[in-house]
Design a protein that fits this description.
Number of domains: 1
Strand content: 25-35%
Order of helices and strands: EEEHHEHEHEEHEEEHEHEEEEEEEHHE
CATH class: Alpha Beta
Helix content: 10-25%
Bound molecules: zinc ion
Number of strands: 19
């Protein structure tokens, strides 16, 4: 079981759960959305409870196996009334289930961060902390921001920086005294510099940006990648388009040395009620880094296709994120009509990712 502790130095220390002390494993999930029918489909009025135990059940073995699992939470946990699109507030059970699945870090800077004003930002952070989840991207106040950002994850003697930004907040103002990290290239450059001053040896940006439902990259996505190239960032992971977008490896020079910047523009939805073209699937991104000499470097990476199966029985819907492999090999059985929908999305997403340097099996970047 992974635990993250806040030390006096404000680094988040992660005891290792993997065998190799020279390798740190990361897993990234895309958008965790909470649409109205997802929120209420399992509501039990007798006990006044919500049951989301199915959501991550089939990916728990993948998520809990890595050193650090990170996901984007595209809702607030602002309390009642619980609402879906367009102003999200989900029951706290969502945070509980993320923790149960093995997620460690929740990125909160996205276009729905301000959906419920100040209480939405503050209470979301409080609930994530209550359930033992580390968070990055939005802050209750400037003190918290200054003390906790950039997020430095410390494990196996390494310090890894995780930065998180959103292109915007759907036109909603950022509530007074709170902080929501916006894509601002000058600020990102400053944050990268600060991360290095804090000792970060590997730098990750989780960006919330892109054009929804299409493959064409947005201005914000390109801006973040340009900053990443210029300042020697190691990994950029994206979400927001609700569909999977391509993965690139970009050779860059940093301090006179060649290295690879890995960019996954959009992981698509991890879970949602969206059913239109290709929004019902996504990918998990697994990235391992390795200590070589005194440096931590990109070691190997792969993607894992997932699909959201909506089981309908007794008038209730249950949502399950299922790895494609478990559907294909029959470990998870679903009705034929659902299988056909799954397979269409799986084939489409594979056609997007197949030309990329990454595959469904590990691709190695070091000898
Ligand atoms: Zn979004």
């Amino acid at each position: 079981m992974k635990n993250i502790f806040l030390t006096l130095l404000c680094f988040f220390v992660i005891p290792s759960n993997a065998q190799d002390s020279n390798v740190i494993s990361f897993l990234f999930g895309g958008d965790v959305m909470t649409h109205y029918s997802q929120i209420f489909s399992t509501y039990d009025p007798k006990t006044n409870t919500f049951d989301y135990s199915t959501w991550f059940h089939h990916i728990k073995d993948i998520v809990s196996k890595v050193d650090v699992a990170i996901v984007n939470l595209e809702t607030t946990l602002a309390g009642k009334p619980y609402t879906g699109y367009p102003r999200f507030s989900a029951p706290d059970t969502v945070a509980y289930e993320l923790k149960q699945a093995g997620f460690d870090v929740v990125a909160t800077a996205n276009n729905h961060s301000c959906d419920r004003g100040k209480i939405g930002i503050v209470r979301t952070i409080q609930q994530l902390e209550k359930f033992g989840l580390t968070h990055v991207g939005t802050y209750k106040d400037s003190n918290e921001y200054l003390n906790e950002y950039p997020l430095i994850l410390e494990m196996k003697g390494a310090k890894v920086a995780l930065l998180n930004y959103t292109y915007g907040t759907n036109g909603l103002p950022i509530p007074e005294s709170t902080v929501v990290n916006l894509i601002d290239t000058t600020q990102i450059a400053k944050d990268i510099k600060k991360a290095r001053e804090l000792g970060a040896e590997f730098i990750i940006i989780f960006m919330h940006a892109g054009r929804e439902y299409v493959q064409e990259l947005s201005r914000h996505q390109k801006l973040v990648v340009e900053v990443g190239k210029k300042y020697g960032v190691d990994l950029i992971v994206g979400a927001h388009p609700h569909v999977v977008q391509r993965i690139d490896t970009i050779p860059i020079m940093w301090k006179g040395q060649h290295k690879t910047l890995l960019v996954a523009y959009s992981l698509g939805n991890l879970i949602s009620n969206q059913r239109f073209k290709f929004t019902d699937g996504g990918v998990l991104l697994r990235v391992d880094i390795k200590k070589v000499g005194d440096c931590w470097k990109l070691y190997r990476a792969k993607y894992i296709h997932t699909w959201v199966y909506i089981e309908k029985s007794n008038g209730k819907k249950r949502y399950w994120v299922v790895p494609a492999e478990k559907i294909i090999n029959g470990e998870v059985k679903i009705p034929e009509t659902d299988y056909n929908k799954f397979y269409r999305t799986y084939q489409h997403n594979e056609s997007i990712l197949k030309p990329s340097p990454l595959k469904q099996e590990f691709v190695y970047f070091l000898d």
